[in-house]
Structures are given as structure tokens and as C-alpha cells.
Amino acid sequence: MESRGTWEKTFTWLKKLTNIETRFDSALEKAGKAGVKALEEATPKDTGLAAGAWFFTIDKGPLSSTITWHNADIEGGYNVALLIQYGHGTGTGGYVRGVDYINPALVPIFEAFSNDVLKEVGK
Q1: Do the domain assignments include residue 1?
Q2: pLDDT single digits (tens) 11-42
């Protein structure tokens, strides 16, 4: 194998890759906050407790990271946000149909995050 020239571009690219984790962390944080805002706005409001109870966590592993959105509005041992999403039975034998508000709220967040990550990888 023969090589001509320098490895300067390769080394520069590799050096940027060592800093990419910091840039991905920033993109994860941005997506997490945007998701909380979108979920707050999309959550059907009766008292507003469920809408104001959204938060997110980021779990970083050796090969992947995960954003998880949570809702802290628990009533009677049940997560109110999930009762709204999937529906629930009532104490009198009735049923309240679910409203799919979580998925539509997060789709634009996923798309924006994907675009942000692709930009970071392309730098």
C-alpha cells in the first residue's frame, strides 16, 4: 500500500468525531425540552395538572442514548396522561375513549431531532 500527501484531513475529521458526543448531548437536550413543550400544549386540559406535569430524562449508554418523556400526574395510582391517551373505564361501568395526542405531538420533535443529528454528523 502506498500513500501520498498528508493525513491532515483524516485526523481533523477524527478529532471532530471525538467531540461529537457533546454536540449530540446538546441535540438530545433540545429535543427533550421541545418534546415537553409540545406535550404540554397537546395535552387535553381539564384542570391542567397533566399538561403541566411533563418532564424528560436522557439515558446515555455506551452505544446509544434514549430520551424518555414522563408525566408525573398520578391520580389513584394511575398516570392521568396515559388514561387520556388510551382511555379508561369509569367507576360507574362506563368507558372514556382515549385521545391520541402524544404521538402527533412528538412526530415533529422526532423529525427535527433527526435533522439536527444529520447536520452534526455532516459537519
Answers
A1: no
A2: 777 776 666 667 788 889 999 999 999 999 99
**Domain span holding position 35:** 8-122
pLDDT of res. 61: 81
C-alpha–C-alpha distance, residues 61 and 56, integer Å: 16
The residues pairing with 75 across neighbouring beta strands, listed in sequence order, are: 78
pLDDT digits (tens, 9 = 90+) for 50-107: 999 999 999 988 778 899 999 999 999 999 999 999 999 988 999 999 999 999 999 9
Burial track 30-53 (b if 16+ CB lie within 10 A, e otherwise): ebbebbbebbbebbeeeeebbbeb
Q: Examine residue 17 and state whether it is found in any structural domain, yes or no.
A: yes
Is 2 within the bounds of a domain?
A: no
